[in-house]
């Protein structure tokens, strides 16, 4: 499932845009000078698919449409109203209508209104209801949650501000949007990406917003820890599989010994070739940082060996392949990240550590913490990490101003890097930029929003 076309009318009361997508391409670029709504289009795409009514309400527009390649369409009509109540208080209300066209059938869902806002403002939303409606939130205090999607701690009031209208969203509509996100997850990488605010820390479970801000960390440190966690989880998965294979090895070996398979001819040469390939595989995993370095090498049998030994070795080889295959996905992502980063960064080499994540080795063999990198290096690293390790298959990734702090030479290499990542991970990318160096001649991927 991919987006085929985006349309917006009345953006800031001024702009009407149509943005077609090429279903053969993984990347789409919208470009314009500042003030034409590039970032806003990314935000609306993200907020409409994720059902963020509060965010949608903050943006002046009258109509927004997302058409998919299966011809399903999400349309949003927005009407702002302003009036005074009986006691002279000024009340801003909104009316948002989602129109969902699916399988040639269309249905409208009207949302918003004064009553919902009054409930939100009065804090009359039960905490238990929040727990039920937002499975991505984990309760860590009486009125505090940890958002597992963003690795942030948020309070009751912040949940109401950010997601409150979802509590009043039509359940049928909510289910439809959830199904869209299941087929095409959406992830917005905004321009302010170097700091992750409110990172969960057990010492701040009940802290104020101000205290939580003090716990903010550079994104590169957060992601370095995240990579260490990913590696730890992969090692745990490998360990679980290893235990299961080792536990059942005797039984499976006996079955193999008693099985007479005359059609399967295994030679000592093929055994040695397989063992050599496994040894090379281990070495590569050690170089990537996924396995601890070992001085032990696999001893290859020489001379004639009997059929029983061949069966033992063949089963050992099969099991070892399964154990090492657990690392395939993480290994390929780490390899591509290291390849891109080590080409770009000068006088430093990215190293992967199972406990620290990524660190950088200097020419004098000392190490540099990721937060000591330049702003351009941090921007590059954050983008690459989010695309490789925080994006699901077939996700739509929305990237705002990737050129921030990047040298012109890096900007010109950006699309090439993105295409490599798209091919590896199966994601699609929508970019908002005003840099011709990011486009780097690929005008066939672009739509201008005017003023260019």
UniProtKB/TrEMBL annotation:
<keyword id="KW-0175">Coiled coil</keyword>
<dbReference type="InterPro" id="IPR027417">
    <property type="entry name" value="P-loop_NTPase"/>
</dbReference>
<feature type="domain" description="Endonuclease GajA/Old nuclease/RecF-like AAA">
    <location>
        <begin position="1"/>
        <end position="439"/>
    </location>
</feature>
<dbReference type="InterPro" id="IPR041685">
    <property type="entry name" value="AAA_GajA/Old/RecF-like"/>
</dbReference>
<feature type="coiled-coil region">
    <location>
        <begin position="261"/>
        <end position="288"/>
    </location>
</feature>
<protein>
    <submittedName>
        <fullName>AAA family ATPase</fullName>
    </submittedName>
</protein>
<dbReference type="Pfam" id="PF13175">
    <property type="entry name" value="AAA_15"/>
</dbReference>
<dbReference type="InterPro" id="IPR051396">
    <property type="entry name" value="Bact_Antivir_Def_Nuclease"/>
</dbReference>
């Amino acid at each position: 499932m991919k987006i085929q076309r985006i349309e917006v009318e009345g953006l800031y009361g001024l702009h009407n845009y149509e943005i077609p997508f090429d279903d053969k391409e993984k990347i789409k670029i919208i470009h314009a000078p500042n003030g034409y709504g590039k970032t806003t289009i990314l935000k609306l795409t993200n907020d409409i698919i994720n059902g963020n009514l509060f965010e949608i309400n903050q943006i002046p527009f009258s109509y927004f449409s997302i058409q998919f390649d299966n011809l399903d369409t999400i349309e949003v009509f927005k009407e702002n109203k302003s009036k005074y109540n009986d006691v002279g208080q000024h009340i801003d209300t909104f009316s948002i209508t989602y129109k969902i066209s699916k399988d040639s059938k269309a249905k409208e869902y009207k949302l918003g209104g004064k009553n919902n806002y009054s409930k939100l403002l009065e804090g009359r939303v039960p905490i238990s209801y929040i727990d039920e409606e937002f499975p991505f939130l984990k309760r860590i205090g009486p009125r505090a949650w940890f958002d597992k999607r963003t690795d942030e701690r948020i309070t009751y009031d912040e949940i109401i501000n950010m997601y409150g209208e979802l509590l009043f969203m039509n359940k049928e509509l909510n289910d439809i949007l959830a199904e869209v996100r299941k087929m095409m997850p959406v992830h917005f990488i905004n321009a302010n990406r170097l700091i992750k605010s409110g990172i969960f820390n057990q010492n701040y479970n009940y802290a104020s917003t101000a205290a939580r801000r003090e716990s903010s960390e550079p994104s590169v440190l957060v992601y370095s820890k995240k990579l260490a966690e990913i590696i730890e989880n992969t090692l745990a998965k490998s360990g679980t599989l290893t235990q299961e294979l080792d536990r059942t090895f005797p039984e499976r070996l006996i079955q193999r010994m008693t099985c007479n398979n005359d059609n399967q001819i295994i030679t000592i040469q093929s055994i040695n070739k397989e063992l050599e390939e496994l040894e090379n595989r281990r070495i590569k995993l050690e170089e990537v940082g996924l396995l601890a370095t070992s001085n032990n090498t696999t001893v290859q049998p020489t001379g004639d060996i009997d059929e029983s030994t061949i069966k033992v070795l063949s089963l050992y080889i099969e099991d070892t392949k399964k154990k090492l295959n657990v690392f395939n996905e993480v290994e390929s992502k780490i390899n591509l990240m290291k390849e891109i980063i080590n080409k770009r960064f000068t006088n430093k080499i990215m190293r992967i550590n199972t406990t620290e994540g990524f660190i950088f080795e200097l020419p004098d063999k000392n190490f540099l913490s990721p937060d000591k990198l330049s702003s351009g290096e941090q921007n590059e690293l954050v983008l690459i990490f989010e695309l490789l390790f925080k994006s699901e298959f077939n996700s739509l990734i929305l990237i705002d101003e990737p050129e921030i702090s990047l040298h012109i030479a890096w900007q010109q290499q950006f699309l090439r890097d993105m295409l490599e990542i798209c091919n590896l991970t199966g994601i699609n990318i929508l970019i908002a930029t005003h840099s011709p160096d990011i486009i780097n001649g690929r005008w066939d991927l672009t739509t201008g929003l005017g003023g260019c």
